[in-house]
Write a sequence for this structure.
């Protein structure tokens, strides 16, 4: 175990450069903690020769990450290119086939191809580690896979896209509409090249699918994640939710229900005073609930050079120390195919609607809710604005099916000024 | 690796029984996740035959934990008896000498004898794991030792005694004095047999010393922890601190300074809106700051059957999976002797004092502070109560030495009605 562990690093963007920096600057610390040196044999990126703020001359260069992944002087292939397919996947497959372990930060690749890659790695006796793929520097994969492995996980939740949380908290604090804050975020460089990955919940949905697989011992199933972005969230709802004691978050929730595995990434109301409700700005938070441990909350930076590279280096050091765990915490061949259960778990809902200013308008809405089996927990009617009466309702727990039934029946009452807004309240 | 991992469990109190329950009820899950069964060969406790709510007939019984620790059919000795010395230490030493790995929840034993035990274990090629010893179910040892191992840790903090946090938050919310809440806590069974372990900060100090050792690569040095309990915290200070935007917490802080390792377990003010300030009741929180990862916050139950047993089982599963890491994250022989630096790091302080109602009284106090090089950030003078003027001061950052100098000079001003209260404000 005193042999160096030799890395080949593909991808020299923010995370790749951050990883090289830590491995160089902390070489002595890493060797002391691992009992062996961790070295870089070779690197690869799209463009060579650019000044990346860290000396790279000492490492062999490969134009092709697949060639890098197969090099004899590479023990661990560190994939930091990104992209679900293309070079990242080809090089990862090549690395496994060549008998290398893999460390990756690639949530998209694992959310789509994780099962096949994990099976290939395990057949070859190799490991894939991906702490950096979910919530940056927060050790949520390690917590789920290792520390809490004696628990049956009952629910896992997370605010795992810093950009969305920045947008929502900025709307709240500055009283600005979505579009204005979205443009601010774009100017600040907070958005992915395709902003839909952020604000559409796709990026966070990839992360949720990975957590769900570990938590519930199921094959990663990103296509079963119910995805809803934050684009339709209005400043009106942010303010009204706040009046009722809530914050709106793009919240990922995975839980096993009697009908199958529920995976949702969607805007939810959470109590202002809960750890999730208090989370502001670009910070990430993961909440794990286990039958023995109760609720564990993990909070930290979900992106950025240092935090993400910290996670990559942690994974590399685990391999250097001889830790060998199945990709998703148990052998990939044993992972179950979970039936997807769409919003099966009942929840209270926040409803906002504008009613015509007629006697009995509210009674008709209450009747429609009652007919769907939904009872009202709290209701607030605001001053009439030009004859239109904004109404907020917090329901008791109901199923999504019942809610949809009530929403479908509401236009028939003839008292709605516009379509009602309904947002799930997640009990945290 | 398909051989079962066989445990000998000594101590069948809350944690021991919780551990047996998880190992029985989750046997299939544990086997799937570890790739091998985890079984119990033998158990030991002070009294045999008592109904502990879980069947124990299938396990060999040993009256003497030392004999248990040496059994041929035991691979891992699970020490859940507690106590820094006596049977816990004797049996742990016996286990190591007999070539067994050790999992323990015993913070006192490790805080006092951790260095010697770690050296013995490493000489014998054995591991000692102790996630359950610090903050119950929160995976803070794993986070520090493994996930964040690529970081230089800059500071580690924690609210790690749930009883103290319960007392302080209950004083705050109910407006009750210390003694009344202390008695409530005693009646609720929240206090150790020797309450000084809780309210004197000793229990939490043990935990801090363990975290500091891992964080800074130093020999565990509990005797260098500056300990101050919560017994002197008044409802007056809780209310006044709240007026100024703070909460009082029994906060452990460890950081490496230019003068050596600072380890403090003492009441501190933290901003109300910070994660630490928002922590209520018996919940624990650990905050880790690393140069790459930034700030990571971990929150969860710090005690109780399920959470603590969850941590014990997590450690056992790590061993079952082949993880072998030095007790304190690097070989014990390499851990440094850190010079203790008592309150070397400067901080703002909260000062509360009652002044005589004479002209110029406040000016004299300000002069004394100025002469010690301490400048005032915020000051608040309350209505005079019978001629006595309560004054609150928040200073700018100053050293503890400067503060002591100012406090020593204050009685000489002749304007103090009683000794001033000074509490450190930890910037979190």
């Amino acid at each position: 175990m005193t042999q160096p562990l030799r890395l080949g690093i593909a991808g020299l963007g923010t995370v790749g450069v951050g990883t090289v920096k830590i491995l160089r600057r902390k070489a002595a610390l890493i060797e002391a903690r691992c009992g062996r040196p961790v070295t870089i044999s070779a690197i690869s990126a799209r463009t060579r020769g650019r000044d990346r703020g860290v000396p790279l001359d000492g490492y062999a260069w490969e134009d092709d990450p697949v060639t890098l992944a197969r090099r004899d002087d590479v023990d661990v292939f560190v994939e930091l290119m990104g992209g679900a397919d293309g070079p990242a996947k080809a090089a990862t497959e090549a690395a496994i086939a060549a008998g290398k372990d893999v460390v990756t930060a690639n949530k998209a690749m694992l959310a789509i191809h994780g099962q096949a890659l994990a099976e290939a790695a395990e057949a070859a006796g190799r490991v894939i580690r991906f702490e950096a793929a979910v919530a940056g520097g927060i050790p949520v994969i390690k917590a789920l896979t290792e520390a809490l492995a004696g628990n049956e996980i009952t629910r896992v939740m997370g605010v795992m896209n810093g950009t969305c949380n920045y947008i929502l908290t900025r709307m709240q604090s500055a009283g600005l509409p979505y579009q204005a804050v979205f443009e601010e975020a774009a100017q600040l460089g907070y958005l992915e090249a395709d902003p839909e990955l952020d604000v559409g919940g796709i990026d966070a949905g990839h992360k949720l699918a990975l957590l769900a697989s570990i938590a519930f011992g199921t094959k990663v199933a990103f296509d079963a994640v119910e995805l809803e972005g934050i684009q339709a969230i209005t400043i009106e709802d942010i303010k009204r939710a706040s009046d009722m004691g809530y914050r709106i978050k793009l919240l990922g929730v995975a839980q096993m229900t009697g009908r199958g595995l529920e995976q949702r990434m969607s805007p939810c109301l959470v109590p202002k005073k809960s750890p999730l409700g208090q989370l502001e700005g670009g910070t990430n938070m993961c909440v794990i609930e286990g039958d023995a441990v109760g609720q564990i909350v993990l909070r930290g930076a979900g992106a950025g050079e240092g935090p993400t590279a910290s996670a990559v280096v942690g994974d590399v050091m685990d391999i250097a120390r001889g830790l060998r765990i199945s990709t998703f915490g148990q052998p990939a061949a044993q992972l179950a195919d979970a039936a997807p259960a769409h919003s099966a778990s009942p929840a209270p809902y926040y409803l906002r609607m504008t009613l015509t200013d007629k006697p009995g308008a509210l009674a008709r809405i209450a009747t429609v809710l009652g007919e769907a089996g939904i009872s009202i927990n709290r209701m607030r009617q605001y001053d009439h604005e030009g004859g239109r009466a904004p109404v907020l309702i917090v329901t008791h727990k109901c199923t999504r099916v019942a809610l949809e039934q009530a929403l479908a029946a509401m236009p028939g009452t003839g008292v709605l000024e516009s379509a009602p807004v309904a947002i799930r309240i997640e009990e945290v």
In short: Chain A touches chain B through 60 residues (CB under 8 Å). Chain A has a mean pLDDT of 96.
